[in-house]
Amino acid sequence: MGRFGYETTDGSSYKQLLMNAKNNRRYQTPAESALWECLRNKNLGYRFRRQHPICGYIPDFVCLQKRLIIEVDGGYHFVGNQQVSDEERTRYLNQYGFEVIRFTNEEVLEDIDNVVNIIKSIMDKKPNISEQNAMEAPLLRRGWGRLLIVSAPSGSGKSTIVQWLMKEHPELSLYFSISCTSRAPRGTEQNGVEYFFLTPEEFKAKIQNDEFLEYEEVYENRFYGTLKQQVENQRNQGQNVVFDVDVKGGVNIKKYYGDEALSLFIQPPSVEELRKRLVGRATDTAEAIEERLAKAEYEMTFAPQFDHVIVNDDLETAKQETLQIVKDFLGC
Questions:
Q1: Nearest C-alpha neighbor of 202 from the set 217, 181, 218, 219
Q2: What is the DSSP letter of 45?
Q3: Distance in angstroms (rounded) separating the CA atoms of residues 238 and 56
Q4: How many contiguous H segments (helices) and E segments (strands) does the chain have?
Q5: Ramachandran class of 180: left when φ > 0, alpha when ψ lies in -120 to 50, beta otherwise
Q6: 260-304 residue pLDDT tens
Q7: How many C-beta atoms surround the C-beta of residue 116 within 10 A?
Q8: Please, how many CA atoms are within 13 Å of residue 119, restricted to the half-sphere of its CB?
Q9: Model pTM?
């Protein structure tokens, strides 16, 4: 009989999750520590694991045999977009048969017996899943996530539309691809979060090994690129991966993935309108604006190679048009 393993992805994402999970176990809150004492050592009749990676997430406590996840949320749960993120996370885990229960720190610390009774009541109603069955039916399915490619000339509103989709429509499960770069981290950037940071030599070796889906040398020895394996890792976690790339990169990614990818070209209504937008930004010199416009005219010749062209004449209309196209593609 096999043991339950980490039900997560492989490669670099797995290693990052494993490292984060081990680190999280060292810094439990008082509420988490108190609840762990009640759950550990099969005190409720089943084995619980703490900070155990599941499908790209690291829940506080997991009982794999009951497909039950318990989260202890602090005050941050009610700050900003955290509650929306938690709801998205719950929906995602529900897809794979996990039930998610959430308690606040106060609930655990003020009446832990009641919390334990709630957990027991839910566990009594859930069927057991044997370790063998769990190993035979892994959570992850290769190729489950799909791909969204978005390209546009600078100033067309591409980033605004993409950010709106990701923030306002979590049901789409959209996540940016995590790229590689040969530059050093800046500020608080972390390896495996904002980018995977490689030396120029490591980057070149991966180019030689044909490991990149697309890459670009912006300056001498300053590379940016997307690893094929990283895209597969994210897809295996159920993430629909978003590529915010230039037009050539967009065309190449579409050719590589074919019908598994949706390619969108966000286009300004005219070059003159684009000029007004770039001037209105007041971030570029007149010379830089003319260079951008010349590049934009060239980039707009690639539009017919994309699945859909969205003319951003009115931003709200363009958002809704993009949303409908993406929903149709994902089957939402």
A1: 181
A2: S
A3: 9
A4: 13, 13
A5: beta
A6: 899 999 998 888 888 887 888 777 788 888 887 888 888 899 999
A7: 16
A8: 29
A9: 0.55
